[in-house]
């Protein structure tokens, strides 16, 4: 597995190739579609992330070696793409790595400042949820 | 009649670009744009006539007071009130309804446990929550007037909902989601034959419907300035004089008193009794030029064509479900809320945004209505008379492109 920094750099690299916002959305839509299916029985209220205009569910599994594995789903495809991006970068990392990361790569790809305020709130909530999960196991 | 280009040139924001594309502003039901004379009045009030109202005797205070009171007279004649004294300035529709829900609750010998309030299923949260608060405080019951699948209120249900305990009915003149013009006059006559006070939320209605409060038959009528091209933070509560007289004040503070003693205070006459604290001194005078625009734009003939084009074009998009379909286009304002199968409203709004189009997505402050239709949200394009046929066509083309991207 590549390192956390390598994974982030790969995403930033992908985004740097796209000038147009619609291309970035196409990319996120594709990522959303590629996300592995999320079982309906995991769509519970305690997995629902608050603060998103669309619904986002996040499931976190803790492995004995200290690594965390995330699964997620959303009823909106761009949001699903964003959470898929976060999973790509953070799933399979150790709790310590995630808890101490600053998640600033979302700024580097222009996600945070270019999404609508409600959506940016949603992104912030997703990041916060992932961090909180990690902090529980540190 | 001015050309559409002349009208548009008076609204500076319309020439703005977003993401290097011309802004297509179709979120007018959330807030309308402001024309130059409104901005000029606002600026003039701030740069030359900043002074508090009614109290001081100095020149600028007198001018500020005059401008403020002129706006009151302009509003009164615009909506057909008997007197400027019937016009209470508020911060907006939400403030107006909260004021009413509080003061009606404290009105002597009016409400008791078990009394009932009727609202429709299609109300904005601002016309639900204040009544819920009141109901909790006074142990009242809220009853809901349902709508049919097309979004029309089921008027035939109203006589069945009314009991001898019904005291208040509060309904939107036009729904902010469905855009349907409600049969307020008919509701009013039913209410009045049962001694029920009728509150009308005119936030959307005042923009598109010629409104005379007496013809409408309302007891109270509320609306916001920002939806009729005036400064945000301005609003109007109209009430029949004897009703306003009978209500206790909502907020205590400066300006609303007659005498203040620790042994007890007496209050100023209406409307000042309801205008505690410093008012929106710079904003309220902008209602004068704004009302001129409402009058002019409401009659603008092109809007009707754009509306009919939109109804037709939307009906041809596969998988699109339009909410608020009264059958006759004249029963609807140019506001279109819809859902598209397989395309989430938020995704559509995000993509349209990047194409330069501003629309609203989500529950639109009407969660019970979303539940009624079994959707998590909708996309809403709301037009003003300054929106053009070309913009409507660009919107439809962009929407089709966005749907294609998502499927």
Write the CATH homologous superfamily of the largest domain in chain B: Type I PLP-dependent aspartate aminotransferase-like (Major domain)
Identify the most extensive interface between protein chains: A-B, 17 and 16 residues
Q: SS-based structural class of chain A?
A: mainly alpha
Distance between the termini of chain B: 44 Å
Radius of gyration of chain B: 22 Å
- Overall structural class of chain B, as computed from helix and strand content, comes to alpha/beta
Please, how many domains of chain A? 1
Based on CA atoms alone, the radius of gyration of chain A comes out at 14 Å
Number of helices of chain A: 7
Q: β content of chain B, as a range?
A: 15-25%
Quaternary structure: heterodimer
List unreliable stretches of 5+ residues of chain B: none
Q: Please give the CATH class of the largest domain in chain B.
A: Alpha Beta
Describe this structure in words.
The complex is a heterodimer of chains A (138) and B (407). Chain A has 138 residues and is mainly α. Chain A has a single domain (4-137), classed as Alpha-Beta Complex (Sufe protein. Chain: A). Chain A has seven helices and two strands, in the order ααββααααα. In chain A, helix 2 (21-34) crosses helix 3 (77-90). The radius of gyration of chain A is 14 Å and the shape is globular. Chain B has two domains: 4-30 and 300-406, Aspartate Aminotransferase, domain 1 (Alpha-Beta Complex); 39-294, Aspartate Aminotransferase, domain 2. Chain B has 15 helices and 17 strands. Chain B has helices at 4-9, 36-47, 59-79, 93-106, 129-138, 158-161, 184-193, 205-208, 213-216, 241-246, 287-298, 302-315, 345-354, 367-373, 389-406; strands at 17-18, 21-22, 24-25, 87-90, 116-120, 141-145, 166-172, 197-201, 220-224, 235-239, 257-261, 264-267, 320-323, 335-340, 357-358, 360-362, 378-382. In chain B, helix 12 packs parallel to helix 15. The radius of gyration of chain B is 22 Å and the shape is globular. The model of chain B has no long low-confidence stretch (mean pLDDT 95). Chains A and B meet through helix 2 and helix 3 of A and helix 13 of B.
């Amino acid at each position: 597995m590549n390192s956390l920094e390598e994974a982030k750099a790969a995403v930033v690299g992908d985004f740097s190739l796209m000038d147009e916002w619609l291309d970035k959305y196409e990319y996120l839509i594709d990522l959303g579609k590629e996300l592995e299916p999320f079982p309906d029985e995991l769509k519970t209220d305690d997995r629902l992330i608050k603060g998103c205009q669309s619904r986002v569910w996040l499931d976190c599994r803790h492995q004995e070696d200290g690594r965390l594995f995330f699964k997620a789903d959303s009823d909106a495809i761009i949001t699903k793409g964003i959470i898929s991006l976060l999973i790509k970068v953070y799933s399979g990392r150790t709790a310590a790595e995630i808890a101490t990361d600053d998640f600033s790569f979302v700024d580097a790809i222009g996600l945070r400042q270019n999404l609508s305020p409600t959506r940016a709130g949603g992104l912030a909530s997703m990041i916060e949820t992932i961090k909180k999960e990690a902090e529980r196991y540190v | 009649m001015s050309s559409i280009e002349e009208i548009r040139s008076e609204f500076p924001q319309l020439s703005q670009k977003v993401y290097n594309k011309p802004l297509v502003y179709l979120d007018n039901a959330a807030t309308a744009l402001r024309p130059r004379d409104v901005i000029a009045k606002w600026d003039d009030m701030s740069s030359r006539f900043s002074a508090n109202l009614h109290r001081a005797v100095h020149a600028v205070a007198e001018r500020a007071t005059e401008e403020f009171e002129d706006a009151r007279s302009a509003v009164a004649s615009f909506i057909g009130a008997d007197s400027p004294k019937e016009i209470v300035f508020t911060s907006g529709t939400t403030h107006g309804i909260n004021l009413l829900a509080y003061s009606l609750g404290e009105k002597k010998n009016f409400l008791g446990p078990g009394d009932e309030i009727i609202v429709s299923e299609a109300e904005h949260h601002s016309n639900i929550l204040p009544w819920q608060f009141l109901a909790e405080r006074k142990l009242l019951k809220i009853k809901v007037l349902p709508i049919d699948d097309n979004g029309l209120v089921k008027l035939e249900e109203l006589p069945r909902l009314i009991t001898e305990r019904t005291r208040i009915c509060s309904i939107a003149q036009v729904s902010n989601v469905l855009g349907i013009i409600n049969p307020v006059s008919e509701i009013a006559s039913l209410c009045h034959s049962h001694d029920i006070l009728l509150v009308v939320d005119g936030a959307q209605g005042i923009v598109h419907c010629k409104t005379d409060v007496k013809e409408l038959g309302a007891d109270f009528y509320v609306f916001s300035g920002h939806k009729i091209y005036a400064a945000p933070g301005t609003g109007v509560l109209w009430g029949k004089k004897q009703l306003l007289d009978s209500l206790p004040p909502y907020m205590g503070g400066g300006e609303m008193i007659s005498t203040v003693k620790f042994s007890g205070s007496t209050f100023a006459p209406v409307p000042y009794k309801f205008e505690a604290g410093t008012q929106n001194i710079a904003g309220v005078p902008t209602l004068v030029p704004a009302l001129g625009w409402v009058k002019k734009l409401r009659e603008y003939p092109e809007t009707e064509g754009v509306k009919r084009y939109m109804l037709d074009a939307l009906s041809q998009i596969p998988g699109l479900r339009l909410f608020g379909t009264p059958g006759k286009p004249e029963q609807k304002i140019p506001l279109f809320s819809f859902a598209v199968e397989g395309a989430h409203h938020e995704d559509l709004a995000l993509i349209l945004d990047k194409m330069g189009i501003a629309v609203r997505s989500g529950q639109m402050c009407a969660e019970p209505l979303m539940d009624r239709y079994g959707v998590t949200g909708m996309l809403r394009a709301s037009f003003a008379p300054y929106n053009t046929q070309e913009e409507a066509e660009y919107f439809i083309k962009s929407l089709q492109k966005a749907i294609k991207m998502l499927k």
